[in-house]
C-alpha cells in the first residue's frame, strides 16, 4: 500500500471532534509519561549521588561530635538512652506488632507500597482522618536516617527514592533491625531496647504480647501515644494493633483478649540523659546553645552532626591553665578576686580561639566572657578612635586635662595643663576623654560603639559617664576583644563566631560560616590608635603587659576595683581579660594594671613560646604623633561648662566647648568611675618619647583614674 493510498484513506475518515480530542489527549499523556520517566531516572540518580548510597554504612548510634579547629574532640552529641540490639534480641511479638501496624506488606514490597499508599489516601479522604500512614517501614527509615521531618512533596519524592535504594542494598531483616533501633518511642527514647528498659524495666527480648503491642502503638504519634503520660490513648491504639495482628493471623482471638486484659505497670525506669563531660566547657556550652537554637534538641542530640568550631585547643588549654592558676594565686595571697574571664579572637576573621568564662565550670556555669561588666577606662580607645575618624580631633590635638564641670557632671583632676592625645590616652586621663565625648556628641558616641560591635547599650547610657566606661549594663569581654581587633585589622570589624561548619550524618554540609565584616574606621585611624596603645603598654598604664614592644592595649578599673580589665592585641590575636567577683564585691587596692595586665602578658607569652603567636610588629608604617604637655596659665581658673556646640573642637587652639542641655545627663546611679593613681605607675613619671613621636613632652602627673 503506497503513501497516496494511505493519505486517501485518512481523508475519507470522518474526524469526529471527540476522536480528535482523544488523540490530542493521548499524545499529551504520552509526552507527559515520557517526560516523567526521564525526570524520575534523573532524580533517582541525583539522590543516589547526593547521599552516596553506594558507600553508606549504617551506624546505630549516629552520635554527633564537636571538634576544635585543630581536630580535637570537645564532646560527643548524643543521648545515652539509645541502645542498639540485633534483630534476634528483639521479641518476636514486638517485630510482628510493628510490622502489622506500620507496614503489613513489608516482606513483599520493594521499598514503596503503591497499593497501601492508595488505600491509605482513600481512607483518609473518606473518613476525614489520618487513619493510615502511607509510608512503608523502609521509607520511614530513610526519613530518619537522611532527611528532616518537614512535610513537602520534594522530601516525599526523595524519601521514596532512598527507600528503593535501601531495599537494593540491604536485606529485609537488616532494614527491620535498623528501623527498630532508630524509631522514636517518646520521652527521649530511640529504639526498642531503650523504650523497653524505659517503660517496663526489661530488655526488648523479654517483652510479652501486651507490652510489645503497647510499644508498637507509640511510633505513629509518640507524644500522643506514649504510655507514661497518655495511658488511655496508648490503650486505644494497642487495641488497634492487636486487631491488625488478629486480621493477619499472627495471633489468636484468645491471645488478643488476654493481652487486652493484662495490667501492665508502666513507669520511668531510667534517666533520659546522663551527664556528658565537655572539654573547654564554657566555649563548648555556647556552641551547643547555638546548635539548639539552629536545629532543636532532637537533631542536635540524635542527628549525628559533625560540628567544627573555631577553637584552638592549644590556646584554649593555655588560657584555662593560666586562669585557674591566677585565681589560686590570688587566694593564697589574700587578694579578694575569685573569678576571671579570658577570651581571644583572630583579628582577621573574628574566630574565637580561646574562651574561659570563669574559675570553675562545675561550680558556676555562668559564662563571664559573655556577661556584660563595667569596662572602666578600657572603653576610651573606642571613643578616641571614633572622634579621630570623624575629624572631631586629630592625633595631634591638644586637650584640656584640668578639672571641669559639664553642667552638673564634674570631672576632677590634679593636672593643670593641656595634653596631646597621645599623653591623654596613654596615661588614661579622664578629663580629655570626657572632652572628646562631649564634643563628639553622646549620640555619635553610642553609634560609634555599635559600629565596634557593642550590643549591650541602653537608653540609660546617654550621658557623659560613658566617656569613662560608666554604662548601665556594661560590655561583654568577648565584644571588647572583637572591638580591639579592629585596631589591628586596618579598621575592619569581624563579628566573632564559634562555629566554622556543620555536617549531617550523611556528610552533607548544613552550615558553612560566612564572615560578617564591616569597615568601622579608616585604616589610618586604626594605626594611630595602635601607636598610642603600643606606648600605653611600653611605658603607660599597661606596662605590665609588655613582652616585646609589639603589644598594644588598655587597662580598665571601676569603682572600688569591682572590675579589673586589660584588653590588648598583637598582629594576630586580640584578648580581653576581666578579673573580679561574680557577686560584684570589690577587689580593693588593685587595678587593671596590677592583675589583669600581668595575666594577659603571661597568656600571650605562653602562646609565643608554644609557637602559636609571633611577636611581629602590628603595622610597618609609623605615623608621627606628638607627645606634649602644656601647662595651663595661672590666671585661668577651674571652668564651669554650661553649654557646648559640636562644631567647637576641644583643641588648645580654640575656646572651650560648652554642653547643650540634652547632652548633660547625670545617671541615677553614676556608673563606676573612679579617681586614683595606679600602683604600677609612679605618681609623676616622665613620659618617654618613643621613636615615632616628634616632640619630647614635659613631665606630668599620671591621673590614671580608671585604668
Automatic annotation (TrEMBL):
User: What residues does the Glycosyl transferase family domain cover?
Assistant: 74-245
How is this protein situated with respect to the membrane?
Answer: Single-pass type II membrane protein
Give GO MF terms, alphabetically: penicillin binding; peptidoglycan glycosyltransferase activity; serine-type D-Ala-D-Ala carboxypeptidase activity
Provide a GO CC annotation, any one: plasma membrane
Alphabetical list of InterPro entries matching this protein:
Beta-lactam/transpept-like, Glyco_trans_51, Glycosyltr_51/Transpeptidase, Lysozyme-like_dom_sf, PBP_transglycosylase, PCN-bd_Tpept
Tell me the keywords, alphabetical order. Answer: Antibiotic resistance, Carboxypeptidase, Cell membrane, Cell shape, Cell wall biogenesis/degradation, Glycosyltransferase, Hydrolase, Membrane, Multifunctional enzyme, Peptidoglycan synthesis, Protease, Signal-anchor, Transferase, Transmembrane, Transmembrane helix
Instruction: Give the transmembrane region(s).
Output: 20-41
Is the keyword Ion transport assigned to this protein?
A: no
| UniProt main location, coarse | membrane
Reaction(s) catalysed by this chain, per the record, are: [GlcNAc-(1->4)-Mur2Ac(oyl-L-Ala-gamma-D-Glu-L-Lys-D-Ala-D-Ala)](n)-di-trans,octa-cis-undecaprenyl diphosphate + beta-D-GlcNAc-(1->4)-Mur2Ac(oyl-L-Ala-gamma-D-Glu-L-Lys-D-Ala-D-Ala)-di-trans,octa-cis-undecaprenyl diphosphate = [GlcNAc-(1->4)-Mur2Ac(oyl-L-Ala-gamma-D-Glu-L-Lys-D-Ala-D-Ala)](n+1)-di-trans,octa-cis-undecaprenyl diphosphate + di-trans,octa-cis-undecaprenyl diphosphate + H(+); Preferential cleavage: (Ac)2-L-Lys-D-Ala-|-D-Ala. Also transpeptidation of peptidyl-alanyl moieties that are N-acyl substituents of D-alanine
Q: Where is this region: Disordered?
A: 630-707
Protein's job: Cell wall formation. Synthesis of cross-linked peptidoglycan from the lipid intermediates. The enzyme has a penicillin-insensitive transglycosylase N-terminal domain (formation of linear glycan strands) and a penicillin-sensitive transpeptidase C-terminal domain (cross-linking of the peptide subunits).
* This protein's name: Penicillin-binding protein 1A
Natural source organism: Desulforamulus ferrireducens
What lineage does the source organism belong to? Answer: Bacteria, Bacillati, Bacillota, Clostridia, Eubacteriales
Amino acid at each position: 500500500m503506497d503513501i497516496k493510498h494511505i493519505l486517501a484513506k485518512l481523508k475519507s475518515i470522518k474526524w469526529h471532534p471527540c476522536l480528535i480530542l482523544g488523540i490530542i489527549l493521548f499524545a499529551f499523556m504520552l509526552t507527559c509519561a515520557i517526560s516523567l520517566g526521564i525526570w524520575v531516572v534523573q532524580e533517582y540518580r541525583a539522590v543516589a549521588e547526593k547521599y552516596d548510597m553506594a558507600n553508606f554504612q549504617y551506624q546505630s548510634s549516629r552520635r554527633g561530635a564537636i571538634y576544635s579547629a585543630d581536630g580535637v574532640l570537645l564532646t560527643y552529641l548524643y543521648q545515652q538512652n539509645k541502645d542498639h540490639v540485633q534483630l534476634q534480641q528483639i521479641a518476636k511479638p514486638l517485630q510482628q506488632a510493628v510490622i502489622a501496624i506500620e507496614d503489613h506488606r513489608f516482606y513483599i514490597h520493594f521499598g514503596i507500597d503503591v497499593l497501601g499508599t492508595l488505600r491509605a489516601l482513600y481512607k483518609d479522604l473518606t473518613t476525614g482522618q489520618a487513619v493510615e500512614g502511607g509510608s512503608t517501614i523502609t521509607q520511614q527509615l530513610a526519613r530518619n536516617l537522611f532527611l528532616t521531618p518537614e512535610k513537602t512533596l520534594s522530601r516525599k519524592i526523595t524519601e521514596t527514592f532512598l527507600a528503593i535504594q535501601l531495599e537494593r542494598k540491604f536485606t529485609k531483616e537488616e532494614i527491620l533491625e535498623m528501623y527498630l533501633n532508630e524509631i522514636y518511642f517518646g520521652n527521649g527514647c530511640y529504639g526498642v531496647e531503650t523504650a523497653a528498659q524505659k517503660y517496663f524495666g526489661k530488655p526488648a527480648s523479654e517483652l510479652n504480647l501486651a507490652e510489645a503491642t503497647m510499644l508498637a502503638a507509640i511510633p505513629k504519634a509518640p507524644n500522643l501515644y506514649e504510655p507514661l503520660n497518655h495511658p488511655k490513648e496508648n490503650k486505644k491504639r494497642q487495641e488497634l494493633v492487636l486487631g491488625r495482628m488478629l486480621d493477619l493471623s499472627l495471633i489468636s482471638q484468645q491471645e488478643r483478649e488476654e493481652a487486652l486484659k493484662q495490667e501492665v505497670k508502666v513507669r520511668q525506669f531510667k534517666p533520659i540523659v546522663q551527664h556528658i563531660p565537655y572539654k573547654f566547657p564554657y566555649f563548648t556550652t555556647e556552641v551547643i546553645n547555638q546548635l539548639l537554637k539552629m536545629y532543636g534538641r532532637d537533631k542536635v542530640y540524635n542527628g549525628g552532626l559533625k560540628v567544627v568550631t573555631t577553637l584552638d585547643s592549644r590556646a584554649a588549654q593555655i588560657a584555662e591553665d593560666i586562669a585557674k592558676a591566677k585565681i589560686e594565686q590570688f587566694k593564697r595571697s589574700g587578694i579578694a578576686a575569685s573569678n576571671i574571664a579570658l577570651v581571644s579572637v583572630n583579628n582577621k576573621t573574628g574566630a574565637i580561639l580561646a574562651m574561659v568564662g570563669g574559675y570553675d565550670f562545675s561550680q558556676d556555669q555562668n559564662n563571664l566572657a559573655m556577661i556584660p561588666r563595667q569596662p572602666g577606662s578600657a572603653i576610651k580607645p573606642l571613643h578616641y578612635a571614633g572622634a579621630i575618624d570623624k575629624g572631631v580631633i586629630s592625633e595631634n590635638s591638644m586637650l584640656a586635662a584640668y578639672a571641669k564641670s559639664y553642667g552638673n557632671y564634674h570631672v576632677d583632676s590634679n593636672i593643670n595643663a593641656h595634653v596631646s592625645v597621645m599623653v591623654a590616652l596613654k596615661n588614661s586621663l579622664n578629663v580629655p576623654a570626657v572632652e572628646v565625648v562631649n564634643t563628639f556628641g553622646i549620640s555619635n558616641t553610642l553609634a560609634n560603639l555599635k559600629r565596634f560591635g557593642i550590643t549591650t547599650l541602653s537608653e540609660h547610657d546617654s550621658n557623659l559617664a560613658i566617656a569613662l566606661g560608666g554604662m548601665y549594663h556594661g560590655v561583654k569581654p568577648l565584644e571588647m576583644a572583637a572591638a580591639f581587633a579592629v585596631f589591628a585589622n586596618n579598621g575592619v570589624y569581624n563579628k566573632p563566631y564559634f562555629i566554622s561548619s556543620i555536617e549531617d550524618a550523611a556528610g552533607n554540609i548544613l552550615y558553612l560560616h560566612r564572615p560578617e565584616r564591616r569597615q568601622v574606621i579608616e585604616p589610618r585611624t586604626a594605626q594611630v590608635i595602635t601607636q598610642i596603645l603600643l606606648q600605653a603598654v611600653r611605658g603607660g598604664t599597661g606596662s605590665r603587659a609588655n613582652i616585646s614592644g609589639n603589644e598594644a592595649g588598655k587597662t580598665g578599673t571601676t569603682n572600688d576595683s569591682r572590675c579589673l580589665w586589660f584588653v590588648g592585641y598583637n598582629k594576630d590575636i586580640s584578648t580581653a581579660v576581666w578579673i573580679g567577683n561574680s557577686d560584684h564585691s570589690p577587689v580593693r587596692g588593685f587595678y587593671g594594671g596590677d592583675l589583669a595586665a600581668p595575666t594577659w602578658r603571661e597568656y600571650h607569652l605562653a602562646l609565643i613560646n608554644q609557637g602559636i603567636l609571633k611577636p611581629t610588629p602590628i603595622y610597618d608604617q609609623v605615623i608621627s604623633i606628638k607627645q606634649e604637655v602644656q601647662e595651663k596659665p595661672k590666671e585661668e581658673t577651674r571652668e564651669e561648662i554650661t553649654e557646648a556646640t559640636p562644631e567647637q573642637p576641644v583643641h588648645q587652639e580654640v575656646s572651650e566647648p560648652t554642653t547643650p542641655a540634652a547632652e548633660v545627663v547625670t545617671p541615677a546611679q553614676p556608673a563606676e568611675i573612679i579617681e586614683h593613681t595606679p600602683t604600677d605607675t609612679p605618681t609623676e613619671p616622665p613620659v618617654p618619647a618613643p621613636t615615632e613621636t616628634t616632640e619630647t613632652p614635659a613631665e606630668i602627673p599620671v591621673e590614671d583614674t580608671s585604668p
